[in-house]
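Fresh eyes needed here. I'd like your take on this protein's tokenised backbone:
***
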Amino acid sequence: MKRTLLLLLIAVMSINFAYPANNEKEEFLQFMGIPIDGSVSSFARKLQSKGFKLVTYVDDNVLLVGNFAGYSDCSVYVCGDNEKKMSHVFVSLPVQSSWSELEKRYSSLKTNLTEKYGNPVCIEECKNANSTDFMAQLSNGECNYRSEFTVVDKNSAENSRENLKELYNKLFPNGKLDSEKLKKYFQDSFEKSLGMPAKKFDKLPAEEKSELLFKAFSNMFRDMADVFDTASGKHIGNVVLTIMNTDQYGQGKITLLYQDEKQKQRIHKENIKDL
């Protein structure tokens, strides 16, 4: 029984070998329908084609102004790395001096983003619950309103569920486990992971076998993590909605950060190389 359960676990681990993704096109987080990828200048030009006006270049970033989510005169910062490749997009709505207006805009944007991306992780609190002067608390750094949305690729989730369903139907015909099919599936997947037939593997020196086995099982464990990760949708980025204070006392603004996960990981790896 234990051996069968182990083989079932490895079968799930190896699903990416047996059922490669139907769509290998990379998915990026989008801002106003534009993938956060490529060069900063190219991304800025695409925003200009949507009516945004170029204001200035600041180091590796571009500042544009235009309409966003029904609000006019919004500042959009297209941010890049030191090679001027896309990093993230930062949006700032016009400054407000009314807490009720800030909260209204925050709630409206949160509702729209929730409809698009699902429920966020939220922190919405002010230090002094008894005070009605929320603008003073905001200026003093005593209000924390933040909603973070995890964006997933729904296509990857659907592909993953279909692959798992196909694997189940293959190994459990009529709802009952077929042990012989499980063993055959495991052997085929393991040989794919090794990159050679089992008979050829058996003839290799012990040291080479050990190295190949380590690589094979490492790949299979990595694929198992990918399977469970993509079952609910592959993580492609985050959108963070915030009420922020400004340099002027008694004023605040709504901001949004659009961070693509691939760009975040790419920049992180580049920074590690510099250490």
Summary: The CA atoms of residues 36 and 149 lie 16 Å apart. The longest helix spans residues 206-230. The chain has two domains: 30-155+233-273, 161-230. Confidence is low (pLDDT under 50) at residues 1-24.
